[in-house]
């Protein structure tokens, strides 16, 4: 069971690194957008950053969870990550 926790943490870290790189690229692209579209872009990007921070918080909770409680923390974390993934994908698709 403990190795499953380690695998889960490694997967979360990898996904977070990937999203951080993509968000950084989106931030650079945002510099090219003008007018009202830029305002909306920046608002949605800020919302993604908030969700990413929540994901980072959940990652720390999973890492700190005991062997007996990590499954529950994992379920809570999965919900946060799924919401972030959905928001990220919608944002990326909208501003391609």
Word description of this protein:
The structure is a single chain. The chain has three helices and no strands. 88% of the residues lie in helices and 0% in strands. Helix 2 runs antiparallel to helix 3. It has 96 residues and is mainly α. This is Coiled coil domain-containing protein. Keywords: Coiled coil. Residues 9-65 form a coiled coil.
Distance between the termini: 40 Å
Shape annotation: elongated
- Total helical segments: 3
Low-confidence sequence ranges: none
Number of strands: 0
Number of domains: 1
Characterize the largest beta sheet: strand count, sense, and whether it forms a barrel: none
> What is the beta-strand fraction?
under 5%
Topology summary:
Blueprint: H1 2-30, H2 35-64, H3 70-94
Protein name: Coiled coil domain-containing protein
Keywords: Coiled coil
Coiled coil: 9-65
Features:
Coiled coil domain-containing protein; mainly alpha; coiled coil
Short description:
The protein contains three helices and no strands. By secondary structure, the chain is an all-alpha fold. It is elongated, with a radius of gyration of 15 Å.
